[in-house]
TrEMBL record, chains A, B, C, D:
UniProt keyword list: DNA-binding, Transcription, Transcription regulation
Protein name: Transcriptional regulator, TetR family
Signal peptide: none
Keyword DNA-binding belongs to the record: yes
UniProt keyword Transcription, yes or no: yes
Gene3D superfamilies: Tetracycline Repressor, domain 2
Location of the DNA-binding region in this protein: 47-66
Source organism: Streptosporangium subroseum
Stretches for region Disordered: 1-26
Composition bias type Polar residues, residue spans: 1-15
InterPro entries membership: DNA-bd_HTH_TetR-type_CS, Homeodomain-like_sf, HTH-type_TetR-like_transc_reg, HTH_TetR, Tet_transcr_reg_TetR-rel_C_sf, TetR_SbtR-like_C
GO molecular function list: DNA-binding transcription factor activity; transcription cis-regulatory region binding
Ranges for domain HTH tetR-type: 25-84
SUPFAM superfamilies per the UniProt record, alphabetical: Homeodomain-like (SSF46689), Tetracyclin repressor-like, C-terminal domain (SSF48498)
DNA sequence: TATGAATGAGTATTCATTCAT
DNA sequence: TATGAATGAATACTCATTCAT
């Protein structure tokens, strides 16, 4: 049972929620991990039953923790966004300020390509997941990366956060669904990064074409 | 009950299929059109019943023409790809060779953003749609556009078809799911186009940022 | 399969509904009859599955005809009310005008006592069945009976329709739940009828006590 | 968390039960009170969880005291019957012997109409509640009232206890489900009371019609 | 060939009851 | 003894697919 377990800080309850009993908390984690795995593999239309089976609990337990399938999807989404935000924050305090944004985008695309992440799938189902808060946190993190990159002169000043997120979304979705291999990822990202750079910085580190 | 029927060439059967009676053919068209409309609006999880109702035929008729829901989705996909290929071919013989690729990408993204097109949704369902032939035709069309643009000097020589298609896919998916508005589309595409241009053509027509 | 089949006129569609195919209509009747039997025996919390099994059809067929359990209950209710209204109307044109109301009440109570009728059960579940129209028809029928009885001098002039219906409801519920035997029914009704008679008519035909 | 506890005599265990610890007894009372309130409001299909929550105890505690939902319903029923018996006994020693039965019936109907009492709901569930002993006590109390009324000359000699209880049951059920307003209650009861009176006492105090 | 009724496996969700903490 | 997490059977409802009319 060595599924990718969500980092503790990501799944920590919002303050104010009464702490769960040890076994309950353990099950919650297992369910979340199972759900992430199952939905990642089969898409969000996978049955809750399957999630329960994968987690090794009864179906009732899943619904005790997440009273709706929606709620379960939301929880995964929040978890994921929290981990991304965390990663963004780490990058933001790293040394190479100019490359931070490029690195982050690259990592996200890599992840998306690897596993059929939930991120993308969520949107598709038309389910409105109301994870606005978590999204906002991530936006802020990305904005910080963008600003730093612009100050470092590796991204044009006239680029807005919206475009960056649009590109990020599109690239992830593309990578996710079309199953780009590493090489294709690299070359595709290189093109986009080239488009983000100021004229005087073109042909930079990320821009090596075969 | 005369719904807007797809153009005949778009729905043409692959050669080798036995010709249908006139009324059967008419029904086939109506079902396809209905399916495209319904799936475009509600996603591929819309029920076949709804498609039948929208087409004004009984459910049995739908399954007579397309023995599986899968088959119906496939047919739509092929239809769509055929129309895109058609559009590509038209663009390829236009006068402005340098802008043809950019124009095509822009149009596709616009369409994807406008209607919840099937394109994107198909991939998501994880269904393997086996439309390889149709895709190949489109690939070839796009390749022609790419070559012409490169010859015209508006796209870098070191760009491959794979990256172009990867970008196209990602941008469409992004536009589709994230609901970009026209302005955001324009700015996002401008960045990508900038990345596609050779150094000496940078800051070209498509690259005006707010 | 000789369950009490609803009379044709009771189940006839409101005009304007497209006529069903013969087999569909037959199934509809069977489902209704089965539902009436099952709910009558086990109360409205009986499962729809059981109704389907009892009717010898698949569960989907039940839901095709009655898209909701509610709808099924409603249909039974309407059916029942229609039959009651019918009975009321017959009584209203009978010869013995003075006894018509008493006869009707007696019959209803008898029926309620016999089978765990749906009437009573419906109210209990807290389900709002929206059969107002059908109820109104029955009210009008009962009102006619009441008026005739009053004109015949067997019911006091100062009795209103509301009280009659209240008594009818209470007596049916009581008979239904408490399982009164025939003799107890008779004696209980005799008391109520006695209360309905004018002073000068007391000790009338219905009022023989042990 | 001091909810309105039922009076001690009402909840007294049948003799022979081993005495509970003080806190356990307190919990028992709270659960009973909560159950009565919850079931009164939502009907007997309300969940045991809700009862537990309302009582401020854990679900396990409820099942410790009442090993089955059935048992809980039974206990409420007994409690209720005990209170009614108590009320009957009080009335039986009151001064106005002739009106005692009428008063009792009136009160019961009033209560039934006011709150979605459990009384009525119990019968509906089809659950056999085995509260024969408690019922017997109540029967005896009512019989006493009946006898006194007959001796006082306000109720006919040929009326039996069974009919009185039948009427009582029916009227309560009717009032409960049909939601009679006070005025309708009054007029309906007046009719029944009139039916109970001997000829020479007709048009008595309770018999004023609009 | 078209129709549309019937099928029945599948899905989310609830809830009485059990049992480890 | 109290807690409350876990259980899992049950239930209403959906929908792709089949087949008699």
């Amino acid at each position: 049972m060595t599924s990718p377990k969500p980092s503790p800080e990501a799944t920590s309850d919002p303050t104010g929620t009464k702490p769960l009993r040890a076994d309950a908390r353990r099950n919650r984690e297992r369910i979340l991990a199972a759900a992430e795995a199952v939905f990642a593999e089969k898409g969000p239309s996978a049955s809750t039953d399957e999630v329960a089976a994968h987690a090794g609990v009864a179906i009732g337990t899943v619904f005790k923790h997440f009273p709706t399938k929606q709620a379960l999807l939301q929880a995964i989404m929040k978890d994921l966004l929290a981990r991304l935000t965390q990663e963004v924050d780490t990058l933001a305090t790293d040394d190479a300020p100019g490359e931070a944004l490029f690195t982050f985008i690259t990592r996200m695309v890599e992840q998306a390509a690897q596993k059929r992440t939930v991120v993308g799938l969520l949107a598709e189902t038309g389910i409105d997941l109301q994870v606005a808060d978590s999204v906002q946190l991530l936006r802020e993190g990305i904005e910080a990366l963008l600003t730093r990159s612009q100050q470092a002169g590796t991204v044009r000043e006239d680029i807005h956060l919206d475009e960056v997120i649009a590109l990020l979304t599109g690239l992830c979705q593309g990578a996710l669904h079309a199953g780009w291999d590493r090489d294709l990822q690299r070359r595709t990202l290189a093109i986009v990064f080239e488009g983000l750079r100021p004229f005087e910085a073109r042909g930079g580190a990320a821009g090596t074409y075969s």
